[in-house]
Amino acid sequence: MNDADDLSHAPARSEPGEVGLVEPRDFVSTEPFTFDNGQSIPGFTLRYETYGRLNPSRDNAVLVCHALSGDHHCAGIHSLGDRKPGWWNNLIGPGKALDTNKFFVLCCNVIGGCQGSTGPSSIDPRTGRAYGITFPAVTIRDMVRTQKRWLDSLGVASLYAVIGGSMGGMQVLQWSIEYPAFVQRALAMATTAREGAQAIAFNEVGRQAILQDPEWNHGFYPKSGGPRVGLAIARMMAHITYLSDASMDRKFGRKAVAAHRKAVAPATPAEDVSELSMEGVDPTAPTATFDVRFEVESYLRYQGQSFINRFDANSYLYITRALDQFDLAATHGSLEKAFAEVQAATLVVGFTSDWLFPPDQNRAIALALLRAGKRVSYAELATDLGHDSFLLESPQLYDLVRGFLN
Amino acid sequence: MAKHSQIKRSVDMQIIADWVEPGARVLDLGCGRGVLLDYLAQTKKVHAVGVDLDFDKISACVRRGLTAYQGDMMALMRELPENHFDRVICSRTLEELPDPGAIIEQALRIGRTITVGFVNHGYWKNRTAAFFLGRKPRNAVYTTAWYESRPTNPASIADFEDFCALRKLKIARRAHLGGDWKTTSSLLPNLLAGYALYDLTR
Question: pTM above 0.90?
Fold first, then answer.
């Protein structure tokens, strides 16, 4: 049992503070579900993961809600060979800000998604074929209502907290509106109660990249194929909106890819090492002009390529639509009215460099809750990492989250 | 030093707590780490909201279970309706604020009462520092030299009461503390009081 090989792996793979090996599970609802737009499906599956244990009084559950391209795998690893842990592993684990020794942490892939939950790439049991674009339009509220069915099935009596960033933050707000008595604490980061024109515009360009790809074929394409070019371009563009001018400049600057690096003496300062060089490139070759030259290009192409291997184009269309349609003020008459029934203590966190869901939109949520007479705090972290700052490894952010939860 | 200021703080905190109605909705302008609000929440069960500019201070408030808003106090008050709070507190913050008159005016729009607590710059020790030594006052209150201090906009009790008369603000209550900030002092307050507290209403 005391295998030397295992021991040598153990400290690196599952040291204290890590969730360690986790296994996704499926919740299958065989009851029909009616979407906000009135259309129904005969049943659905939500793929989920849990960490920690539900206490005997069933009130230590913390629901984590994921963003557009996220999934249920927010902490731990699936196998010892995994190179990356779940997407919020830095926040979630024994002794971490979201402490799995205290809390029963749950996260599921949203309805309309493609990581195991029912979505457009799932088979419609009524036809035996993939739903494609016959799948009903999905809203943030649909995501939340399906999650409630799942939590009920697990015997979760109330949520100690709901927490999420970006689209996850929208779900957090929707949770505290839809099930006010069920949610004790709501923590929404880098989010908005309604997207601005700029965010909608970015999503529309992404959708057009997919819709204009001939392989999209009006939403009906084989699992292995589909609008891979369009989806990759959508992802490349969206990825830029998650970063910032400063963070991209720090990471890439004008650094050139290996093939285009200027040969220099070793003593030259680092920034010169990667200066663009056209040496050895035939300037008359037809493709030379538009080859990958800068590292930022190579990075974005990599992001696009890796995305198409894990994400479904129709899911991308559905979920970006859900984001754009989300408008709590319009749905309820005003943001104050939207929050009228909220019982949860809320914490909203904005990030100074977030230009997708800027601090003002986060502040507007807090102010409306305040005007509605609710318990709400607003904090704004100074970072230059853009929208993705909420995923940042920041002791300040961890302290805030820990303080709010304890 | 930390302990010393804690003791001093506790007397003005007690006075404010005496003035606050139980269960009141209270906004603390420049709430810092939430020491005063925590005290008021515990002793008077107030519904507390703080506002401050600093992330770590908001974080400390949240850790105490208080609600706090990170941002500019004036911008926050402009976003709130009339009489949203029973009381707005501006304790040991006034002299660091630009345009304090406008802030008091806003506070009296969103709150029925404003409690203002400030260091009396007319206190004789502050006067002698300037008069005899020709120096910026350096003492337990003003601990730093001018070149490492935040900008301040000091006022005396006489200045403050003039302001209230000019703006026709009703002084509902006042308390003057001696140089030790512990005992109340009523004789020649502008000369002998180190610290002053006022409750103003419209």
Answer: yes
Mind listing the pLDDT tens digit for each residue in B46-64?
Answer: 999 999 999 999 999 999 9
Amino acid (one-letter) located at A25: R
Contact A375 B67 (CB under 8 A): yes
CATH number of B2-120+153-201: 3.40.50.150
pLDDT of residue A265: 52
Give the residue numbers in A contacting B (CB under 8 Å), as ranges: 345, 347, 363, 366-367, 370-371, 375-382, 396, 399-400, 402-404, 406
A389 in catalytic set: no
Q: Which domain holds residue A32?
A: 4-195+328-405
Q: What pLDDT does residue A358 have?
A: 98
Q: For chain B, which residues make up each domain, given as ranges?
A: 2-120+153-201
**Residue A393, in any domain of the structure:** yes
A350 inside domain: yes
pLDDT of residue A266: 53
Instruction: Find chain B residues with C-beta within 8 A of A404's C-beta.
Output: 62-63
Looking at the fold, whether A120 and A177 belong to one and the same domain comes out as yes
A387 is catalytic: yes
